Each structure stands twice: as structure tokens, then as C-alpha cells.
């Protein structure tokens, strides 16, 4: 038997079947584009994504006939929601958090509540990226769509629902709406009322890991699945990735996600102190492991910055005729073994707490004619780690006392990147055998919901396995300490000039 983890991302979806020992048995991936019909708009074609989800499930099912899928769950991006009817019909596209529509409704919220009031209810700071402003915009400007919609569901909940599960809203993704009472695990009547949103259009909140039903018979046949494949409620991709990294609550470890964004995620066994979290502009979110919580810091200049570097500095032959993997491999092979003196401020995109920079500009400083593109790439990786270290120092606990990190995502396959991270942060960095931790986390949830494991700890023990651990190189400690101080001085100078 196998467990299927489905992951719905911003630009692609994947499905991976795992054995009960965490061994990937089969996988499939499809990409898609963000649609932007007007400036400031960013949506996903819901119909296209659903059809591609069917394709990847079928691909995996055909490859696992000897280890048939017994249960599935779904990990997905936050904020984006999909309008759907009770008979499981998708009604429209999904507005992403980066979409700029609905700012007037944020202003309405802030005219009635202080940010601290909103945080007290939701565990989050008000912003346009959450679902709230987009849903209020649909209610006002797409009233027919709003009226015809029976449920607005996150992607993880939508996939489970259309496959045959009952309609629910898992706690982790409910917390990305700015409409969820994080303490009572219910939709906030006062916030919904303020924005004239109907509570009945939001599915009942449930913890992750709940059994929702079986894949519908006609779909199971179409997808070459068995007759009794359990559907289990999933969660936010960052939560699923933390689970798939093997993080236990309060283990002094944190996930170090190296994808399009850099994202650092600790796990707490109880709700952290809200006053401390609010002061540091850190949100609080229900984890996919019921009874525990997460928060995170992030920077868009992670894998996205490395991709920009590849596209800009690779030759035509590498970037066009070579595969993405080959061109990255070529560039990373050119990274020198010792650190250099170029400094990069990785502020090329949006950042999260504590500064929440948007529209900032990055910087490459200290270039000379003798430098190579390998030197520049190493400086980019160093700059990303300097940014994270600076955040830790500003935020203190719960990040600064982390004992070690577990790296996930595409960038974690690079030993060079992990070693640089370990050296600058002064903490060991672990890479597990499965680095696509969101899919693995979803599969673990599927195993829990179908009662193949008695606890999440047992499931992680069985399915998560370490591959390598990078220890900080003491020979680089003094050099990086001095370079970090230069990084901070340059950062302050750039801030003054921007002001």
C-alpha cells in the first residue's frame, strides 16, 4: 500500500506516493501560469489546475498498481480560495494573495479595529494578502458569483471536497483568511458581519488529519485508484513541510525552506505568548498537528533570486538548450570553496517580519573585474543567510535559540548552500532523504487520518529520515562575523538612501 501526498503550489502541482517508510514510489508534476489580466491582478485558473490535479493523480496511480494508494491528503498555498457549489462544481478562478484588489475593505477593517484588535482575534496582522479583502471584493464587484457560491474553499480543502470528501476548512488554512478566530477555532462573527460576508459560505472548520470520506466511485475508476481510497483533511503547505521535515513541538529545531521564498518555520507545543508575537509582528497559526502552532519569517529573495541570477548570468546555451537542472548544476559547480568579499543585500522582493519590506531594492557591493559569476552566486547565498541572521537577532525567541535547522525545497539539494547557511547562522543544517517535505507531510497526514499510525511522532519516525548534516566550519567563523557587520552597515546605508 502507499500514501498519496498532493501539493498545490503557486506555479505548479505535484503528487507523490510514499511507502509507509517514507520511500517515494512514484511522482508526477504539472506547472501552470499566474494569470494577470490587469495590472495588480493575480489569479489562478481553477479549472486548469483541477484538470492537472486529475492528471498527476492518475499518473501516480498507474505507477503504483503494486502498491495501491490507500489514503490521500493535500498541502496547498495559503490565502487563495476557490468558489464552489454544493454539487462540487467550480465556479470561478482563484485570487492569489499577491493580487492588489480589495484594499478598500482593509481600510474598512482598520477604521473599526486596531491592528492589535485584529491580532487578538485572528493571530495575524491585517494586510491585503489575506483572503478577507479578496472575498469582500467578490461580494461587491462580482455579486452574481458570490450569490451562486455555496462554499469558498482553500485549495487543499477544495481538492478533498471535489474528490468526494465532506466540505471542511482546515484550521491552518482558515488562519490565512483574517476571518478566523484562532482561539475558538471558529469563523469570527464580528469580522464577517463588518464585511457583510455570509458565514454559511465558509465550510465548518476542522483540524487537519480528519477523515472526510472516500474518493467518489466514478473518479476512482477514472483515476485508476482503488474503490476505497480515504480522503483526509490537509493543510497549509508550510505546516505540511514542517511535518514532513520531522519537526517535533518545541524541539529547538526549525524548518529552513529553500524554495521560491526562504521560509523559516518553528513549531510550538502550545500557543506562544501573543504579546511577544504581536510586538515582533509574528503571526500565530494552527499547525497540521492538532494542538500545536507555527509561525514563520520569509523573504521572496530566496530561490527566486537564484533563478533571476541564473536567467541573467547564464549563457544562451545553458539557459535555452540545457534543462533547468543542468544550468543550475553548472552555476553551483563554479562556487568557490572559500568566502569572498562581495556583499549582497537580498531585498529584491517582498519580505515578511519583522520589517515587511515591499518595493525595496537589492544591492550587490564590492564587485571588481576579477570576480566571476561563481563569486557572485556565493555572495547571493551568503546574503540570504545574513538576512536570516539579522531577522533572528531582531526577533530573539523563538528563532534565535534554534538548535538546528532542517532544510527543505529545491535549494536544499545543494551542499554548498547548506554549508554556507550553517557557517553564517552558526547552527547545524540537516537535509533529509526527502526534501519535498510538503508532499511528504501531506502523506503523513493521510496515514494518520486513515489510522495507519497511532501518533504523528510514530508517523514521523517511520517516514522521515536524515540524509546529511552540515556542521558550521569554525575556520570561517571570524571571517563571517566581520562580513556580517559590514552587511549590517550596508543595509543601514541603503535604508537611509531609500528614505
Which stretches are low in confidence, meaning pLDDT under 50 for 5 or more residues running?
319-324
What is the mean pLDDT?
93
CATH fold title of one domain: Nucleotidyltransferase, domain 5
Helix percentage range: 25-40%
Largest sheet: 8 strands, mixed
Rg measurement, Å: 22 Å
Overall number of strands: 25
Task: Tell me the overall shape.
Answer: globular
Tell me what portion of residues adopts beta-strand conformation.
15-25%
Class of one domain in CATH? Alpha Beta
Number of helices: 19
CATH homologous superfamily caption of one domain: ATPase, nucleotide binding domain
Structural class by secondary-structure content: alpha/beta
End-to-end separation in angstroms reads 59 Å
Tell me the CATH architecture of one domain. Answer: 2-Layer Sandwich
Task: Describe this entry's structure for a reader.
The protein has a domain at about 1-240: 2-Layer Sandwich (Nucleotidyltransferase, domain 5). The protein has 19 helices and 25 strands. Helix 2 (about 105-110) packs across helix 4 (about 130-140), helix 15 (about 375-395) packs across helix 16 (about 415-425) and helix 17 crosses helix 18 (about 455-465). Residues about 320-325 have low confidence and may be disordered. With about 500 residues, the protein is of the alpha/beta class. Strands 16, 17, 18, 19, 20, 23, 24 and 25 form an eight-stranded mixed β-sheet that branches. Strands 1, 2, 3, 5, 13, 14 and 15 form a seven-stranded mixed β-sheet that branches.
Amino acid at each position: 500500500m502507499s500514501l498519496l501526498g498532493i501539493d498545490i503550489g503557486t506555479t505548479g502541482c505535484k503528487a507523490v506516493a510514499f511507502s509507509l517508510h517514507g520511500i517515494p514510489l512514484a511522482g508526477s508534476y504539472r506547472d501552470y501560469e499566474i494569470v494577470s489580466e490587469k495590472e495588480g491582478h493575480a489569479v489562478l485558473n481553477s479549472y486548469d489546475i483541477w484538470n492537472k490535479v486529475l492528471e498527476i493523480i492518475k499518473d501516480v496511480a498507474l505507477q503504483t498498481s503494486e502498491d495501491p494508494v490507500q489514503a490521500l491528503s493535500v498541502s496547498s498555498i495559503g490565502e487563495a480560495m476557490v468558489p464552489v457549489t454544493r454539487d462540487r462544481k467550480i465556479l470561478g478562478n482563484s485570487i492569489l494573495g499577491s493580487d492588489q484588489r480589495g484594499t478598500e475593505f482593509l481600510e474598512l477593517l482598520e477604521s473599526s479595529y486596531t491592528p492589535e484588535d485584529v491580532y487578538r482575534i485572528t493571530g495575524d496582522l491585517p494586510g491585503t494578502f489575506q483572503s478577507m479583502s479578496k472575498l469582500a471584493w467578490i461580494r461587491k464587484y462580482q455579486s452574481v458569483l458570490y450569490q451562486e457560491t455555496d462554499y469558498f474553499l482553500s485549495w487543499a480543502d477544495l481538492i478533498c471536497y471535489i474528490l468526494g470528501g465532506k466540505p471542511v476548512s482546515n484550521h491552518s488554512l482558515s488562519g490565512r483568511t483574517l476571518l478566523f478566530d484562532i482561539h475558538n477555532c471558529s469563523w469570527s462573527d464580528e469580522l464577517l458581519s463588518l464585511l457583510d460576508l455570509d458565514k454559511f459560505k465558509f465550510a465548518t472548520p476542522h483540524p487537519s488529519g480528519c477523515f472526510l470520506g472516500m474518493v467518489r466511485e466514478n473518479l476512482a475508476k477514472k483515476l485508476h485508484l482503488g474503490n476505497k481510497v480515504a480522503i483526509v483533511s490537509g493543510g497549509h503547505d508550510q505546516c505540511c513541510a514542517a511535518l514532513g521535515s520531522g519537526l517535533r513541538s518545541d524541539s529547538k529545531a526549525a524548518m529552513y525552506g529553500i524554495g521560491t521564498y526562504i521560509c523559516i518555520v518553528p513549531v510550538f507545543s502550545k500557543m506562544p505568548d501573543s504579546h511577544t508575537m504581536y510586538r515582533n509582528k509574528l503571526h500565530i497559526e494552527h499547525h497540521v498537528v492538532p494542538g500545536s502552532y507555527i509561525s514563520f519569517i520569509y523573504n521572496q529573495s530566496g530561490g527566486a533570486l537564484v533563478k533571476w541570477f541564473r536567467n541573467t548570468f547564464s549563457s544562451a546555451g545553458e539557459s535555452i538548450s540545457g534543462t533547468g537542472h543542468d544550468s543550475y548544476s553548472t552555476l553551483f559547480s563554479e562556487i568557490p570553496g572559500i568566502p569572498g568579499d562581495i556583499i549582497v543585500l537580498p531585498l529584491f522582493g517582498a519580505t515578511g517580519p519583522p520589517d515587511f519590506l515591499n518595493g525595496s531594492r537589492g544591492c550587490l557591493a564590492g564587485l571588481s573585474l576579477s570576480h566571476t559569476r561563481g563569486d557572485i552566486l556565493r555572495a547571493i547565498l551568503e546574503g540570504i543567510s545574513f538576512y536570516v541572521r539579522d531577522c533572528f537577532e531582531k526577533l530573539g525567541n523563538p528563532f534565535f535559540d534554534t538548535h538546528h535547522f532542517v532544510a527543505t525545497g529545491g535549494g536544499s539539494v545543494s551542499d554548498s548552500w547548506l554549508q554556507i547557511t550553517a557557517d553564517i547562522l552558526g547552527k547545524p543544517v540537516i537535509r533529509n532523504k526527502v526534501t519535498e517535505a510538503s508532499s511528504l507531510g501531506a502523506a503523513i497526514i493521510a496515514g494518520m487520518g486513515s489510522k495507519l499510525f497511532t501518533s504523528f511522532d510514530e508517523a514521523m519516525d517511520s517516514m522521515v529520515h536524515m540524509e546529511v548534516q552540515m556542521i558550521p566550519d569554525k575556520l570561517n567563523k571570524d571571517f563571517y562575523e566581520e562580513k556580517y557587520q559590514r552587511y549590517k552597515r550596508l543595509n543601514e546605508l541603503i535604508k537611509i538612501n531609500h528614505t
